[in-house]
Amino acid sequence: MIDTLTLTAEEAWRLVDAREVSGAELFAAYRAAIDERDDELHAFLHVADDPGGDGLPIAIKDVIGTQGVPTTAGSKILESYVPVFDATVAARCKSHGLRLLGKTNTDEFAMGSSTENSAFGPSRNPWDPTRVPGGSGGGSAAAVSGGLAPWALGSDTGGSIKQPSALCGNVGLRPTYGTVSRYGVVAFASSLDQVGPVAKTVRDCAFLYSIIAGRDENDSTTVDVPAVELPDAEDLKGLRIGVPKEMNEREGIEPGVTAAVLEAIELAESLGAEVGECSLPRSVEYGVACYYLVAPAEASSNLGRYDGVRYGLRSDGEDFRTMLMNTRHDGFGDEPKRRIMIGTYALSSGYYDAYYGTAQKVRTVIRREHAAVFESFDVIVSPTSPTVAFKIGEKADNPLAMYLNDLLTIPSCMAGLPGLNIPCGLSEGLPVGLQLIGPQFSENILFRTGHALERALGFDGVPARLRS
Amino acid sequence: MSSGVGSTEPPMSWEAVIGLEIHVQLKTRTKMFCRCPNEFGAEPNTNVCPVCLAFPGALPVANRRAVEECIKLGLALDCDIAERAVFHRKNYYYPDLPKAYQISQYDEPLCARGTLVVPTADGDVTVGITRAHLEEDAAKNVHVAASGRIHGATATLVDFNRGGTPLVEIVTEPDLHDAETAKRFLQLLRQTVVELDLSDAELEKGSMRFDVNVSVRPAGSDELRTRTELKNMNSFNFAAKGIEREIARQIRVYEEGGTVEQETLHFDPAHEESPPMRSKEEAQDYRYFPDPDLVPVHPPTEVVERLRTEIGELPGARIRRIAETLSFYDADVLVTGGLDRLWSDVVAAGAEPKEAANVLANQFVATGTGPEAVNPAQLAKLVNARAMIPRAAFDEALARIGEAGFEAAPYLEQKVVADAGELDPVIDRIIAANPGQAEQFRGGKQGLLGFFVGQVMKETGGKADPRVVNERVREKLNA
């Protein structure tokens, strides 16, 4: 009997390799879990048929294009869209024998922190179905922690892998910008979007990262990536951990979150790490404001292609302009509309210098501030999310409160840096996420740190209410 | 120098200010940002892929060859080649623009600050090149009447084959002051592009297109007044005509106390006026910003230097060199017609230079034969024999000169009939058959001479020497 709630990808791989379990049995087990729990969780927007083979199943966020399988990006405007080509990451998964279980729910065009902005309804947190799984990649996170998939791909623009992983108790990596191809991934903000793995363990996460990372001739922003090392060390000797005070001591971070993170930091010290205080004042103060200019600006341009001419929704209209306006009126939800308007404004002549131009300069400041910190530290830590999973509807009517949920994940995204979330405990019965951030291309250091802490913490990733 | 493109020379008190914006479609094997074939005339929507159709998630990758070709043109135009060039997005909605933005260049173009020196009969005119940058072309909208619908109902079909093909945009400084020089500039630029093998630059196919900005100001002033933009001119002569007409119109507006509105004028050769196409009053805000999908281009010095060595003697320099032997006009026609290399070879093979230029620029061009198909030695023989052989023989020889193994000898054996004894009976017969015309000629209608000469040439099957016929006909009519 396969227990999909506890089975890691690594164990599953071993079982299949040893022929203790067939690929078909494995796939069927996850399909059964989906049948059993997805009516409640709504992690999937589309469940795929078993393509056969012996590889592991995988769930893929619905912003990632999959040939012949609907890819909606959580939007009505793409409800009917079936890609004719695989995103590079989907193709790499295929070529490693991974089999698509289905496409996971997301905030529309990955814009949101709760999946409540999905045109097809929110996903629910497996730890408490009255709460959000985070977002935008809440579907992938809920699928992994709910035992509906051994691992999944997400995409992260300002925290959409790290934050849902934190809220659902998973390991999630947002890789260094440029290490994973964006080709075939529905674009939100091109200078920030990055695909990454969501998994139960750091080793699973590292392994999936090794499959998807690498230069892609179809994405000119990709680079050659250092070989991925699967972590096995259980100590942190010689590691210098920085604790930025602005990201650890601030109003809005729940006491239970602070407590769990502090405990993890003390544990790191006991594993041999040197821990010291550091500071990222400008990054934290201006990060969110800067992000909410850059990301909507790029989005306003990226979403221009949904015009009803070639694919997706087309509403009636007597001429091109009317058809275009009707299509976009009917097809986009409130959040994309809001961001298209903000972004269009920020790029307008006369405002460009004040908004987009200034934001780009601030971005350089954020990058330099992080680089300075990494002269003294190998990794910096903070909570991933200031709060544990919040109630569905709690912030839905307050976009600003929702935006501030990403306060701690955004600065390093703006700097193009990798970030790893690992679960570090519970607060009020809900997972707390620890964010580890390193310099560019330091994924191996993050994996090593995350793995040692994971072993020492011994966090049980199975939602308490689902434990048998 | 007026050269027959129009007669509305601006009065001395006004000066025209003309700037050009030229688009040249590169003939790279593939499109600018994807690997679709870049070809003209394929079945609609067959040269397309997720990138040039802007499917979700598709990303552009810049065509290295196109970048090099743009640099090469920049070098030919004496531009500075940027150490860092950036692609920008120009955002607007149109059915032929699938991404809702065109990838173009904005404040960091590949090539900038160049010049193109245009030789004219009155000396060289130096035209500043503001920039030469790379961008992608839009697709093609085809407006059709929808069958079975009520009258006037139309539909728009989009052919994406052209979408994403590479264009170089060349922008000049407002350094031109008359239509004729503007036309010469365009012809010289075209010839430069063709010789560098960057583009067919065919106006009819749209692989070269240009817009002209025109304003006028009091002569001697350095102000820049409101300009209008002339679009859709599909020949250099139309362009010259349109510019002349627009200059005259603006002068008229000012002299009548009016103001010139900023607008785009669609040039239609069938109409006397250039009707306004669209007003620029509600100027589009293109929301330019650097395309985050593309990395900045840093052309390596060794590539730029290699490209520089691939550029031979440019057309402008050759016009100046050949004008030392021939008239400026002949030199210009030969070079901008792509005939000067053949001319040099024919002259080297012994042809008289001026005669060779005349034959090439007038008769040879009309045959449609490519210069590369010609054996210069055979053409030289033909050129030198032109006066001695019948017109018909010469024309036939020229028509066949591109054929493999062409020999001039058989044609050279045919001699013109210059003997008055042979021609006079024919001339007498024709005058006798046309008494009315003969009477009119004697009454002063000198133009009828050509009629009689033509009849004689026809009668003799083109073998008569036209100079002798002319002389004899005139004598006989006046007798």
Q: How can the largest sheet of chain B be summarized?
A: 9 strands, mixed
Mean pLDDT across the residues of chain B is 89
User: Secondary-structure element order of chain A, as H and E?
Assistant: HHEEHEHEHEEHEHHEHHHHEHHEEH
Ends distance of chain A: 13 Å
Q: Compute the number of structural domains of chain A.
A: 1
Q: Indicate the multimeric state.
A: heterodimer
What's the architecture of chain A, going by CATH? Answer: Alpha-Beta Complex
| Shape designation of chain A | globular
Order of helices and strands of chain B: EHEEEEEEEEHEEHEEEHHHHHHHHHHHH
Helix content of chain B: 25-40%
Strands of chain A, count: 11
> Quick one: which chains have the greatest interface?
A-B, 43 and 31 residues
- CATH topology name of chain A: Amidase signature (AS) enzymes
Mind explaining what this structure looks like?
The complex is a heterodimer of chains A (468) and B (479). With 468 residues, chain A is α/β, with parallel strands linked by helices. Helix content of chain A is 38%, strand content 13%. Chain A has a single domain, classed as Amidase signature (AS) domain (Amidase signature (AS) enzymes, Alpha-Beta Complex), CATH 3.90.1300. The longest helix of chain A is centred in the middle third of the chain and has 22 residues, at 281-302. The radius of gyration of chain A is 21 Å and the shape is globular. The model of chain A has no long low-confidence stretch (mean pLDDT 97). Chain B has helices at residues 64-76, 179-195, 236-255, 301-309, 315-322, 328-336, 340-348, 353-367, 376-385, 391-399, 409-412, 420-433, 435-442, 449-459, 466-478, and strands at 14-25, 80-81, 87-91, 101-105, 111-120, 123-136, 140-145, 154-159, 166-172, 208-218, 228-231, 263-266, 276-279, 289-290. Chain B is of the alpha+beta class and 479 residues long. Chain B is 35% helix and 19% strand. Chain B has three domains: 14-306, no CATH class; 339-412, no CATH class; 420-478, Arc Repressor Mutant, subunit A. The interface between A and B is large, with 43 and 31 residues.
